[in-house]
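Input for the complex:
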Amino acid sequence: MTISPPTSPGGTLAPNAEPGEIVVDVRQVHKHFQLGKRRVPALRGVSLRALRGRVTGLIGPDGAGKTTLLRLVAGLLAPDAGQVLVLGRDATQDSLGVQAVLSYMPQRFGLYEDLTVMENLELYADLQRVSHAHRRDRYQELLHMTGLGPFTRRLAGRLSGGMKQKLGLACTLVRVPELLLLDEPTVGVDPLSRRELWAIVNRLVRDAGVSVLLSTLYLDEAEHCHEVVVLDQGEVLDQDSPRAFSERMRGRSWTVEAPGARPRTLRARLARSPGVLDAVIQDERVRLVSEAGTRPEADTLLAGLGGAVLKSVEPRFEDSFIALVRTRIPKAGVSTGRPETRASTQDPTAAASPHPARSTDSPVIAVRDVERRFGEFYAVHGVSFHVDRGEVFGLLGANGAGKSTMFRMLCGLLPPSAGSLRVAGVDVRRAAADARARLGYMSQRFSLYGYLSVRQNLNFFSSAYGLAGGRRAARIAWALEQFQLAPLADSTSADLPLGYKQRLALACALMHEPEILFLDEPTSGVDPVARREFWRRIDELAERNVTVLVTTHFLEEAEYCDRLAIMASGVILALGTPAEVKRLAGSSPEHPLDMEEAFIHLIERTERVGATS
Amino acid sequence: MSLAADHRTRSTSERGSRGLRLRGLVRKEFLEIIRDPSSIAIAFLLPVVLLLIFGFGVSLDAEHVPIAVVVDQPSAETAAFTAHLERSPYFEPLLLFRMDEAERAMRARRVSAILRLRSDFARRRRIGGAPIQVIVNGVDANTGRLVMGYLDGVWIRWLEQRGRDAGEPLDVPVSVQERVWFNSELESRNFLVPGLIAIIMTLIGALLTAMVMAREWERGTMEALLATPVAVWEILLGKLIPYFLLGTGGMILSVTLAVWLFGVPLRGSLAVLFAASTLFLLAALGMGMLISIVAKNQFVAGQVAIIVTFLPAFILSGFLFDIRSMPAPLQLLTHIIPARYFVAILQTEFLAGDVPSVVWPNGFALSIMALLFLGLSRLKSGKRLE
Amino acid sequence: MRRRILALVIKEFLVLLKDPRSRFVIIIPPFVQLLVFGFAASFDLNDIPLAVYCEDPGADAQELLAGFRHSPHFSDVAVIARDEEIRPLVDGRVALVVLHIGPRFSRDLRLRRPAAVQVIVDGRDSNTALVALGYVRGIVDRFNRRWAEQHGVPALPARLQPRAWFNPNLESRWFVVPGIVGLLTLVVTMLVTALSVAREREQGTFDQTLVAPFRPGEILLGKAIPGLVIGLAEASGIILVAVYGFRIPLLGDLTTLYTGLVLFLIAAVGIGLMISSLAVTQQQGLLGAFLFLVPAIILSGFATPIANMPPFLQQVTLVNPLRYLLVILRGVFLEGTPFHLLLDQFWPMALIGAVNLAAATWLFRRRLY
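Predicted:
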C-alpha cells in the first residue's frame, strides 16, 4: 500500500471533495452517426448524473451507446441536441476546460506501442504539464501501484493485455483528475488484472476523492459501483444503486441442486420451463430467475429429477439486468435476446446425431509434453492433457499464460517445438487437409470477411469445406434459420452488431458439421445476453457428441465446461472438473470458493512458490 | 507525496513551462520514427535508392547508339564518311552490305538507325547533292530525335573535314554557333538530380506525415491525445517539427550526394537553397496533414498521398517533362503543385545561381502554398472525433 | 480441389470489389495516371520561348527570322536590342533560346563569307535544350537550302535524308502510352496481390483459411488467379483507351500482345505474393510494393532508354519483367512485330515468372506460422 492518507487535516476526503455534488450532468442528449447513407441513432434522449467521489457504471449490451456517451463527456463529440455539463462547464463549448479536469482512457488504452513504459508516462506527464518536481514521486507511486516497476524499459507493444491496461490507467493518472472516465477498461483482460484494476480505482476514490464514470460489459463489476446506469439501444433504462437493482428481484432468484445430474443438461431443461426468465450454471448448481409475479412450482419444475432441491437465494445485480433487458420489446431487427423458451431450440438436424456416441475409444485430442519456445522464452512448457469425445474442455489462464499458443498449436497454426500433439488421431500439422476438414474453428475476433454479406460468408466457408449442391444449400438454409440470420442474409457482415457477428462466425465454423470445435475466446467483448445464447448452442453441440475446446476470460463460463485446465506461465496449474479445480484451489464446504476466487488462489499460490524458490 | 496533495499541485503544474506539451509530443514523435522501420525506410533508404538510381541509371543522353551502315559500293569517299561515324562517341556502327539485312536488324532491335550510302554516292557527290538516306527507329521519339541530331553533327564535321582536305572552304550560307549555358555538356544528370530533391522531400513531407498521422487515428492514440488538455496547434506542431527536421535531413543528404557523388555544380547560395526548401517542406507537410485528417486511415492516406503528391511531383513538376509542352489544362493544373515551384528554384540554384527573377516569384508561390495547406489543416482539425 | 480453389477465387474477387478502398485502388489511380501520363509525359516541345536579338535590319535576316516565327515549335517572347538584356532573360527562364543575328549578317551572306547566327540555349534542362537546338538547326538548314537555290550557290556535296520508321512524326505519346499499359498493369497487380495476405492477417481471416482444409498451394492459387484476372482486365481497359482515346496505332496481333501480358502477369503476381508472404501488416505490404515499384519502373526503359544506362545497371534490368513487356508492347503496337521476333522477350519473362512463383510458394510455406 503506497497511498498515504491525505495530509489535509480536514478529514479523510480530498480537500474539494463534497459527496453529493453533481460532477457529470447529461441532459436530454441525442446523438446520431451517419453510416453510409443510413442515419444511425446512438443516443436517444439520454439524461443521467454522476456524483462526486462516486463510481458510476454504465452498463448495457453491445451497441447501447456507452462509448458515445463517454466521448461526449470528454468533449470529443458534440451532441445533436441536449447538453453535457462536467463540473458546471459545458463539455461542448469549453472542451479544453473540461479536459483540464478529467482524464479519459479509451477502449484501446491510447498507448504508443513503439514507446517504452517510461516514455509513455513521460509523454502523458508532459501533456498534462506535470511539473518535473513532482514527477519522480508520481512515477514511483504509479509504477508501484500497477506493478510495472520492473518493466519501465519495455516497449508498450510488448506488454501483455493486462499490463497494457494498467499502463493505460497509469498514463491517465499521471495527474490526479477530478473526474476519471474509463471505457470498458476490463475487456479482454484476465480476472487477476481486473481485480487489480478495481483495487486501484477504489483506492483513488477513497483516498483522493476522484469521481469515476466507467462503462463495462461485466455484470459482476456493477457490484463495485456506487451507482449503475443501465443503457440499452441508446436509452437509459434505469439508474440506481446496484443494491436497489438487486432488491427489486427479491423473491425471484433461485437455485436448483440435483445430485447426479449434469449441470449442463439440467440447465438446458430448466431454461425451457415456463416461468423461467434466465438459467445459468453457478457452482455446480443452476441459478434461476423467475418471471415477475410467478413463483416457480417445485413440483412441475423438478418433475422427474429425483432429489432435486429448489432454494430461494439472495438476488444479485445480474438477475435484475437480465430481467430489465429481456422484458424490453426488441427494436427493429435487433433482438437483445429472449428467454430461451421462445427461441427455436430444436435443431432440425439434431435428431440424427451425426457423430458416434461417446465411446471408450482413444481421446479425440491428446497432448503430451508439448513445448513451444520463442527464442529463449517458453510460451508453453511441458503440457499434457486429453479431451474425450463429446466433452466441453476449457483452457483458462491470465494473459500471457500460454493458452493462446497452446490453442494455435492444436489448430495446426503453430508447430510445437517438442512433444506430441494429436487431434482426431492425426498430427494436425503434418496431416493435412483431410484432418482439418473434421475441425471447426472460431477465433476471438470473429474473423469473417467484413465486406462480404452474411450469405457470401456462408457460401465461402461451406465451399471451403468441400460442401456442394443440395447439401450446401441445406446447410446454408440451416445456418440462416438456426442462427436467426435470415433477415440479415444480405447485410454486410462488418455492419452487424457484435452479437450477430459472433453467431455468424459460429455458423461458419459449423457449416461442415465438424466433430471437433475449437473456440478461441468466443465471447470476448460480447454482452451477457448474447453470451447466454452462445453457451446454449454449445450445450446443444456437446449433446450431439461434438468435442469442444474453448478458451475464455470469463470465469463463470468455466462452469459450463465438463473439464478445464488452468494455465500460467506456460504450464498447467490445475486440471479437472470445475468442482475438482476448486477443491485443488482450496475450496471446502466450509469455505466455498467460486471459480474466480479459485483461479486467483491458484495463480497467487504459484507466484508465491515462484518467488520463494 | 500523496494522491490528494496532487490536487493542489495541479495549479502549479499548469504554470509549468509553456513548451512542456510540445516538447513531449516532439520527443514522442522522434522515438516513434527511430523505432519504426518503415519510417526509417521512407526517410533514409528510399532517398538513397532513388538518388543512386537516378544519378547513375537514368540518362536521356544516348551514347554508343547501334547504327547499321549500308554501303552499296565501298569507295574512299564512303570509307571517309564511316570513319567519322566510328570516331563519334555517340555511335557504334555495324557495317552491312544489303539493305534488307539492315531492315531486319532494325526490326529485331539490334540497331536503332540505318544509314545508307547508295551506289551512286561518289558520282552524285561530284555533281552535288548526293543523298544520304537515314532511317531512325521512331518508337522512342525522343531518342530518335537525338540520333538525328547526332547524325547531323557527324555529317557537318565530315563536310568540314572534306572542305579542309580539298582546300575549298565549306560553303554553308548560314552557320549556327551554339552556346549552351549552365550545362554546356548537356548532361541530363545535372538537371535530374536537383529535381529529385523535390521528389524525396515530397515523400518525407507528405507521404510519411500522412501515414504516421493516420496511424494515430487507426491505433486509437489520437482519441487519448485529444482527451488531454492539449491544444490543436500543439498537436499539429508536434507533428510538424519532427518531420520538418527529418525532411531537412533528407535534403542535406540529397544535396551532399548530388554535389560530392554526382558532381552536380552548386552555383547558387546555400542560404537561398535552404530557404526555398523550408518553404517547400512546409507546404508538403501541410499537404500530408490535410490528407491524413481527411483519410484517418493509413491505407487510404498512403494511396491518396501517392496520387496527389508523389505522382504530380514526378510528372507535372517539370522535373522530367517540360511543362511548356503540356496541354493548356494540365499547365494550369501544375500551378497548384508546390513541387513545380521548388523544381524551378532547385534547377536554377544548382546550375545557374541565385537568380532573383526565378527565386522571388517561385519562393512567393511556395509561401502561399505553405500558408494555404497549413492553414487548411489547422481549419480542418479540431478536438472532435467527427 | 477445383471447387475449393473456385471458392477462394470468388471470395477474393468479392473482397476486392466490395471493399470501397480496394475498388478505389483498382479504378481511380490507374485512370488518373493514364490521363496524366498520356498528356503530360512528353519530351516534345511546343512554343519554345524565343528571344530575338537582331542587329541586322536586312531582308535576309528578316527571312531567317520568319522561319522561326512560322515554326510551331517557337514563340517570340521578347525582342531585345542590347547584349546586357540577354542574361536576365535566360537566367529568369523567360526565354529558353536567344537568337542573335549580328550586324554584319546580310553583308557576310552576300559576300559569300560564312554568316554566323549565335544561338544561346538555357541548358538547365539538358533534354529540352537538345531538342530545341535540333529545331534551330532544322530551320537554319531549310533557310540555307532555299538561299542556295535562289542564289545559285553550289549545293553541298551530300545531304541527309532523314526518315523515321514506325513513328514518322516522332510523337512522344506514341512511345509513352503503350508503356503505360505495362506500367499500370504492374502497379495494380502489385497492389492487389502484395496487400492481400497482409490484409487477411490483419483481419484474422488468414488463420480461418489456414484451419480450413486448403493446401498451401491452393491458397496461393486462390490469391494468384484474381491478381492475374484483374491485371488482364486492367491492361485490356488501358489498351482500349490507348487505341480509341489516344489514337495510338495497334499494328500487331492481339495474340502476341496477350501472350506477353500473361507471362508478365505471372511474373508480377509472383513478386506480389512474395511481398505478401513477408508483410505482416498492410502498411509493410504497401511499402514493400513501393520499394519494388520505383526501381522497377525506372529501370524498365519506360521513360529513359535502358541503352543509356551504365553497363552494370543494364545487367540489373535483365531480371526486371517490365523491361521485356515494354519491348513487346511497343513492338506490337507501333512496329507490328510478329510473334517469332519476340521470342527473346517471352522466354526471360517465363523464366522470371517460374522462379518468382517457386520463391513465393517457398516463402509462403515458411511464413505460414
